[in-house]
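dumping this here before i forget
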Amino acid sequence: MDAWETITLLVAAVGALTAIVAALFAGSQAVAATEQSRYAQQQPTLAEQVRKDQAQPYVFADLRPDEQHPVKVMLVIQNTGATVAKNVRVRFDPPLSSVAMPEFSEEMEEVLNGQIATLPPGRAVKWLFDIGFQLLNSAEAPRRYTVTVNADGPFGPVEELSYVINLNEVRRSDSATPAVKKIADELEKTRKALDKIAMQQQKIAARLPAPAAPPQSRSSSDSLESAPNTG
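structure:
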């Protein structure tokens, strides 16, 4: 094979490779254009789904210390979403059992096994569940509960929420009385002390003799009649 034939073969090979690269590039562009078109078609659907998700209520249940009296463990069901939650159903596995109040499960049967008709946005309903030190010192009381929450929103059923509550976390939580509660208690003590002082002052004043009436001054007409006549 002479030099011209070699050069011709090389040129043909380069041309073939160029054609293959061009075809691959065109194919990738076509795939990208197809994906872009599909993504653009999905945008309105995705935006609508995001709008609905943001408008759905968000309901959860919790067992936590009371903000004002941390010794109390409260059952709290709250809606932090933007719309009203309807037909709220909350289930605990195992069923809730209180050490300090054995009648709790029976009294709360309608709430725990039934439904909460409506729960407006931002609303939290609370019930006294147990006393912290009694609950945590009981060997029989469950420490972990699996909670399942279902509710309906303006666009139908909300996605089911399921999670675990570990009561051992209550043991490690800060049980100090909030500063606002301390200030309120001190103000209440001050008010009661001032009330006692006021009552004592009223008793002392009631025992004092009535003040003597001051002498009445003569009227101006009497002064004129008693004045000497210089005329």
